[in-house]
Design goal:
CATH superfamily of one domain: Galactose-binding domain-like
Largest sheet: 6 strands, antiparallel
Shape: globular
Number of strands: 27
Radius of gyration: 28 Å
Helix content: 10-25%
Distance between the termini: 49 Å
CATH topology of one domain: Jelly Rolls
Length: 557
């Protein structure tokens, strides 16, 4: 899918089904749903081509030639005119007349430097970017008087004697000068303290500062992107930032990133660490901010609890500070004595058994989890909590990942260093294997198997593995659009005998499950079982071909 291509002389545009018709559909659906779209015209960063692609087409040397080179500026104006005059395939409405578009952004995060092969030239400065923004915004207004225009910059300043790099004009961005341009309607700014070297409290000051500066130049301002990597504090920080936006009358705040579902119905992966998934506590907090922005005042909601995660080994209890990332409203505080571990039962349940162990609430607002002996996998619980005003929260989940006790388990495959040699046993054409970060039950990676036919998938060991005294082999399996049978074979003993264990247990589609194969039931071709020398291990994957299957943490207990 692409919007631009080079026709040998200049950029040309693709309005077809693998081009702008995708954006046409986005605008059509936005209009049907009552949403308003911020439409950036290009990107400073290379992931989607953006400015560097223009420089490449022009045989340029520097990233900032996008702003200064007359040919590139002419090409960009041709693109702007094409977009604004383009007629939506589905609605017949030209973009310049489409009420689904709220704001046209000149670009996403324009700076003197990008992140590709083109460096910043010694000539790039704030005057260059401001002149470019003036030229492009004036050009847009000649075609489109219906929509607001913003630059799309991150809000950096140019101040004499400043100490922070965000104020020193080093990026060529002067947000006051940009927002003050005659044809710029909205001051735009972003907030990523993790990337910029600041803390969340600095972020609140950044928000207040920009809204005050926008008021001084009599322009509205919008926090166009914000994100925080630290998940344990994210819910409370986002409440602080959005409260700041609401209290000073800001025009809006748009968080990065709300993922959707992919074509295989799995969530879009959290590639950059900023994703907020719905439903969930942070999603609820941000939804309430939207409600309060519509009402133009704070409202007395009940608590918004965030989900909690912890990791332990099977013999070690773990305590989760579950209230630390929950938020309250209207001056209320959380009542630690009202934690209810069984939302489906009236009253406060302070102890609740789940698959894999037991959760126990404590009077200090924490919850302790004790794993069932031998359990390995994810133990999921939930809770409610009341605030001091007597308002109850929605349910939040607690997930403890229980890893094998290293003193009693032997890790056979973790896939942290790659696919660990796993391949189909019978026919190489029966599927592919690769390391994947899309799922992990131990560490950061798993094995992604894409079977085309039923087969055994596994690997031979360079040296035999001793599993004497072990009673089971376990692993986590995650299915996607198709289910699978599960079974185990080992090649064992001095005679390299094939031995099989399990019952071809079925795992449904879209399921994550811990498989535990009982080695006491293993049957070998010769009848003798010798687990002191295991030469190879294979897992059966059946009914494949319609979606990948993930395996992780193959171990013997």
């Amino acid at each position: 899918m692409y919007f631009h291509y080079f026709d040998g002389a200049k950029p040309a545009f693709n309005d077809g089904p693998d081009g702008l018709q995708h954006l046409d559909y986005v605008l059509k659906r936005a209009g049907e749903l009552g949403l308003r779209v911020v439409l950036p015209l290009t990107n400073n960063w290379r992931e989607f081509g953006g400015m560097d692609q223009y420089v490449r087409w022009a045989n340029g040397q520097f990233h900032d030639q996008f702003y200064s080179d007359p040919t590139i500026r002419h090409w960009f104006k041709e693109w702007i005119a094409h977009v604004l005059l383009h007629r939506n395939f589905y609605t017949g409405v030209r973009y310049k007349d489409d009420p689904a578009i709220m704001t046209i952004e000149l670009g996403n995060e324009p700076r003197c430097k990008g992140d590709g092969v083109y460096p910043q030239s010694p000539d790039c400065n704030a005057d260059m970017l401001t002149a470019w923004a003036d030229e492009m915004s004036t050009f847009i207004k000649r075609i489109d008087r219906n929509h607001l225009i913003s630059v799309g910059d991150e809000g950096f300043y140019c101040e004499v004697g400043a100490r922070d790099w965000t104020d020193l004009c080093t990026e060529g961005v002067d947000t006051i000068a940009l927002a003050s341009l005659r044809n710029i309607d909205v001051m735009s700014f972003h907030l990523y303290p993790d990337y910029w070297g600041f803390d969340s409290a600095w972020g609140t000051e950044w928000i207040n500062r920009h809204f005050a500066d926008a008021l001084a130049i009599r322009k509205p301002a919008m926090l166009g992107e914000y994100g925080l990597l630290e998940k344990q504090s994210r819910n409370r920080v986002y409440q602080e930032w959005t409260d700041a936006t609401l209290d000073v009358g800001g025009a809006g705040a748009l968080y990065w990133l709300l993922p959707g579902l992919q074509d295989d119905h799995t969530p879009y992966p959290d590639y950059d660490g900023f994703s907020v998934y719905c439903p969930g506590g942070v999603c609820e907090t941000l939804g309430r901010f939207a409600t309060m922005m519509t009402a133009n005042r704070r409202l007395p909601f009940g608590p918004a609890p965030d989900d909690d995660f912890a990791r332990t080994i099977s013999v070690t209890p773990v305590t989760l500070p579950i209230l630390a990332n929950d938020v309250t409203y209207d001056g209320a505080v959380l009542d630690a004595g009202t934690i209810d571990l069984d939302p489906a039962t009236p009253g406060y349940q302070t102890t609740f058994p789940v698959t894999g162990g037991t959760y126990q609430s404590n009077l200090d607002g924490t919850v302790t989890f004790v794993a069932t002996p031998g359990f390995v996998g994810n133990a999921v619980g939930s809770y409610l909590v009341w605030d001091s005003a007597g308002r109850v929260s929605s349910p939040a989940t607690m997930t403890v990942t229980v890893d094998p006790d290293p003193n009693s388990s032997r890790l056979l495959f973790s896939f942290e260093d790659g696919a660990d040699g796993w391949l189909p046993l019978n026919n190489a054409a029966d599927g592919t294997t690769e390391q994947s970060a899309d799922y992990a039950s131990l560490g950061n990676f798993s094995l992604k198997v894409s079977p085309t036919r039923d087969d055994w998938f596994g690997a031979a060991y360079a040296s035999p593995v001793d599993l004497s005294g072990k009673t089971r082999v376990s692993w986590e399996v995650r299915t996607t659009s198709s289910g699978t049978s599960q079974e185990l074979v080992l090649q064992t003993g001095a005679g390299w005998d094939w031995c099989q264990a399990g019952t071809f247990e079925w795992v449904n589609a879209d399921t994550t499950k811990t498989m535990a194969i009982d080695l006491t039931t293993i049957v070998c071709n010769t009848g003798a079982v010798d687990l002191s020398q295991v030469h190879a291990l294979y897992v059966y994957l059946g009914n494949g071909g319609t979606g990948p299957i993930y395996l992780d943490n193959v171990r013997a207990d």
